[in-house]
Design goal:
heterodimer, A: alpha/beta, 2 domains, 4-stranded parallel β-sheet, B: mainly beta, 4-stranded antiparallel β-sheet, 9 strands, SAF_UxaA/GarD (chain B), D-galactarate dehydratase (chain B)
């Protein structure tokens, strides 16, 4: 066992007393991946089926299905473009074949040029230029064969945990979420920060009511102001739809479950962020510029927040669930943690770790946090998560404007 | 000694959480990483609900996760149920928005 627990004078169990390392793939821009995928990146919904065919032909390639890339404008256009580029630049990706139809607003060539700035192999292919689906499949597959073989020549090297960006999220929550798995992820988040790495807190919607507490932990005034601003914007979006999302929170079901105030409910989600200083608040799919704890402004939608964090450079994501979920990403391993043991036992093919031991009084929050840390190390070294094995390649972009 | 499980999330907290339904009049153990103490439960506490682990005066902040989750509307005794009848959130009261 590589972990040594360190007991402070007051007996509090705290973190690791050694520098943790993992075997990763160093990329030309210096960042480190824990996977070595060749990504077929369709910038337009019209190209997703063709991309899918190629992944069926060429082992070592991944892609994702989506419905975007055309008839988008303004900040909504920018956010979708940033998400595509971030997926391609994620260090878990060795190289990218950007696939366009030809006439789309999110031009494959522009996305490809952006990704190529990080120095990894990038090729761009257009269906219209290749005379249709079948020629394009052949063209992309031929490029992919070369790229996959080149990728297989890259050797893993020993890297520090400070290179890791770990995303955190919860979905399908239950009465145990704020008591077991979320606090355990918070303790892991503290350990990642202690190691010099980055932990992402997301799902702005679920932090409404706890924003002042997060703002109190902000590194400076501008970070605190942005914490309030992203909450306000999220509230305003719902008010523009004619709904106040705070109405009815805590819900009658929450109150029956023992939650007494909105602060308490939101803290159950915010506890995934641990106790460290909030270094910055970043936009959706943006790459953190600081190490430590970072808040990414995302909605509570499981797949959209997962995609935002992975596009922001997260190599691994921690996902807590009470009801259970199959969620995974095409390029980042998602470690799924159950809040209760009965669900873990029912859905073993989907869940990676069980934090229900806290509810049963068998383990403490920090013991489970340590176990999650060990799993991060194993997964970073190459252990496959359940979602990877089941080819759960979920992808969804947070759209912030209508389609025209 | 009862075997009812409880969860004490942060040493600053004024409440702990019941991990099973706890009847009135039993004494439970509340454990943190470094300390352990006993609380006599005054009224039935359902799974997931909170009880006070020390006396809380009227108007005083109530802490869970080491953070303020609201304030006491009335004085609360050790072992008393802490919920919407004696705790009021301090902001973002969605249920009070007209």
């Amino acid at each position: 066992m590589f972990i040594i627990w360190k007991e402070k004078e007051e007996g509090e169990i705290r973190l690791f007393n050694e520098k943790l390392q993992f075997w990763g793939y160093r990329r030309p821009d210096g960042r480190v991946g824990v996977r070595n995928h060749v990504l077929i990146l369709p910038t337009i919904t019209c190209a997703t089926q063709t991309a899918q065919r190629v992944t069926e032909l060429v082992s070592g390639t991944v892609t994702f299905i989506h419905q975007h890339g055309c008839a988008q404008v303004g900040t909504d256009f920018d956010q979708t473009a940033r998400t595509y580029v971030g997926m391609g630049m994620n260090p878990n990706v060795y190289g990218v074949i950007v696939l366009g139809l030809g006439c789309e607003t999110h031009q494959a060539i522009q996305i490809g040029d952006e990704i190529a700035k990080c120095g990894k192999p990038v090729e761009t292919v257009s269906i219209q230029d290749n005379g249709g689906t079948l020629q394009t499949i052949a063209e992309v597959a031929k490029i992919a064969v070369r790229m996959v073989q080149d990728a297989s020549m890259v050797q893993r090297e020993l890297c520090d945990f400070s290179e890791l960006i770990i995303g955190t999220e919860c979905g399908g929550s239950d009465a145990c979420s704020g008591l077991s798995a979320n606090p355990a992820v918070g303790s892991t988040s503290d350990m990642i920060v202690e190691q010099g790495g980055t932990a992402i807190l997301a799902e702005t919607t679920e932090l409404i009511g706890a924003e002042h507490l997060l703002a109190n932990r902000a590194a400076n005034d501008s970070v605190a102001k942005k914490a309030y601003a992203v909450i306000k914007m999220m509230e305003n979006r719902s008010i523009q739809m004619g709904v106040d999302i705070r109405t009815g929170n805590p819900s009658p079901g929450n109150i029956e479950g023992g939650l007494s105030s909105l602060e308490e409910k939101s803290l159950g989600a915010a506890t995934k962020s641990g106790t460290t200083r909030l270094e910055e608040v970043i936009d959706y799919a943006e790459r953190p510029t600081k190490k430590g704890l970072v808040w990414m402004d995302t909605p509570g939608h499981d797949i959209e927040q997962l995609t935002g964090m992975v596009a922001g450079g997260a190599q691994i994501v921690l996902f807590t669930s009470g009801r259970g979920t199959p969620t995974g990403s095409p390029i980042a391993p998602v470690i799924k943690i159950s809040t209760n043991t009965p669900m873990y036992e029912r859905m073993q093919e989907n869940m990676d770790l069980d934090a229900g031991t806290i509810v049963d009084g068998k383990e403490t929050v920090s013991q489970v946090g340590g176990r999650i840390m060990e799993e991060i190390k194993a997964v970073a070294d190459g252990k496959l998560t359940k979602a990877e094995i089941l080819k759960q390649h979920d992808f969804g972009i947070w759209r912030i404007g209508p389609t025209f | 000694m009862s075997e009812y499980k409880t969860l004490f999330l942060n040493e600053k907290d004024s409440v702990a959480v019941a991990l099973s339904d706890i009847p009135a009049e039993v004494e439970v153990v509340v454990k943190a990483d470094s300390k352990e103490f006993r609380v006599k439960i005054l009224e039935p506490i359902l799974f997931g609900h909170k009880f006070a682990i020390r006396a809380i005066s009227q108007g005083e902040d109530i802490l869970k996760y080491g953070e303020v989750i609201g304030a006491a509307v009335v004085p609360i005794d050790v072992g008393e149920h802490v919920h919407v009848h004696n705790l009021e959130g301090k902001r973002g009261r969605g249920d009070k928005v007209v």
